[in-house]
Amino acid sequence: MKHDPVDVLIIGAGASGAAVAWGLAETRMHILCLDQGGWMKPSEYPSTGRDWEAKFYGDWSTSPNIRGRPEDYPVNDDNSPIKVVNFNGVGGSTVMYTAHWPRLHPSDFKVKTLDGVADDWPIDYDALTPFFEENDRIMGVSGLSGDPLSPLTHPPMPPQPLGLSGPLIGKAMNKLGWHWWPSDTTVATMDYEGRARCINLGHCTPACAQGAKASTDITYWPQAIRAGVELKTHCRVREILTNEHGMASGVVYYDKDGVEQFQPAEVVIIACNGVGTPRLLLNSVSGRFPNGLANSSGLVGKNLMFHPYAQIYGFVKEPTDSNRAPPTCLWSKEFYDTDLSRGFVRGYGIQFGRGAGPVFEAVASEQKGILPWGADHHRVFRRLNGHRLAVSAICEDLPEEHNRVTLDPVLKDSHGIPAPRIDYTISENSRKMMEHGLARGREILEAAGATDICINNPIPWGGWHLLGTARMGTDPARSVVNEWGRSHDVKNLFIVDGSVFVTSGGVNPTSTIQAIALYVADQMKQRLANLFD
């Protein structure tokens, strides 16, 4: 079935899709967004019930392979030590994320110039600054302005309380003379724009039934829809079609009944994350584009960056926050920028974990062999439960072409579309960085008086950040999109998600992803008269 053409078609309703939809809404163009998931129901979120932690291991796992909802697609990540985690639905992975909210640093955009590795971005931090600020206002950020080692931010809400764990971490860092700061988060600390403040209903992952955590289904999308943007759910896009002029003409998708549909469009914007976007482009083959759409560079799917997480944790005598309060509300940028005396280039951010819930503690500690079965079980569990502190080094992944997303020759989703296959190895530079992070983490935990120290290196289910697989650049031979998100090959095709990242930095990317989406929308509005030149 063929529909009337729309001016702008957006694929994906997550962090970037919502932001670009809102950013373009004022043009009054006919904007349609398709998402393969549906609207979320906070009344059904795990934290409304006492078994919320148990659900994290099944229906509400962060892994699509474990979760297996009809909206999900499988991912073959057997050939990767880090497994992909994502979420499909209105709001995308912002429904599941921990709401930790750093920005890329100005230095992250100039890695080649500063350190002689990877490539510089075709844009700099200053180009994104107004969009960072606007995004912070719409998402609703809590934090403390003035961090001396982070970009200057102006959060509209005060920071998360330090709670029980914060002072233990802060005192340990002070003892070592290392930087730490209350991190920006998108968890409301006061009533904000119709969202109620956090009441510590439970861990922010999988989802916030309170609505205190900013996911785009409750921030951007209500505003975008009021401004006239149309959003259709349970529509899984199979491929993007092109016309005789080599322009995108629309998409083929399956509706909620599994019926194949064609939606024509003047402009197509992809917002499907760093795995879903290359999957869609590689599946959109034609005579003109035999190796996948927008892939004359051969780089679609290549340069996948995950951020390997090196985690070390231990247990203190004092009570910690457990699963009460947002889990990552403190950060350190002590080791963020290059210091070649450490034996590697670039650096990492540190995230501090305030604790873990009892079910997670029981499962994880039994797996690590520190929680015995038998007569001593309950005594040891009481000593561990509610006493955990964690240090995670989020390590900058440098782009390497052999880390890639391709189409799996066998595995398919429920509509018969080839699933993505991940081939990824941790580089020698990243391994040295991870070892450095673990050593510093051990020093921090020992300064806090922790014992029973355990390591996850890397965090296996840590593929939260899916970056780099359709990179931005001015040279069509070395990039997939230009400096404002437009495909070099297909002039009416844009990409706004994390796949356009040139380098990954050492911080969570969502704030930067959304700033880029707003920036691309702004560039499109400025260039509307000559969009297809």
From TrEMBL:
SUPFAM superfamilies tied to this protein: FAD-linked reductases, C-terminal domain, FAD/NAD(P)-binding domain
Upper lineage: Bacteria, Pseudomonadati, Pseudomonadota, Alphaproteobacteria, Hyphomicrobiales
Record keywords: FAD, Flavoprotein, Oxidoreductase
GO molecular function, a single term: flavin adenine dinucleotide binding
Residue ranges annotated for the Glucose-methanol-choline oxidoreductase C-terminal domain, each copy included: 399-517
Organism name: Bradyrhizobium valentinum
Chain ranges of the Glucose-methanol-choline oxidoreductase N-terminal domain: 7-308
Keyword flag Iron-sulfur: no
One Pfam family recorded for the sequence: GMC_oxred_N
Entry annotated with the keyword Oxidoreductase: yes
PANTHER family recorded: LONG-CHAIN-ALCOHOL OXIDASE
Membership in a protein family: Belongs to the GMC oxidoreductase family.
Listed InterPro entries: FAD/NAD-bd_sf (IPR036188), GMC_OxRdtase_N (IPR000172), GMC_OxRtase_C (IPR007867)
Full protein name: Choline dehydrogenase
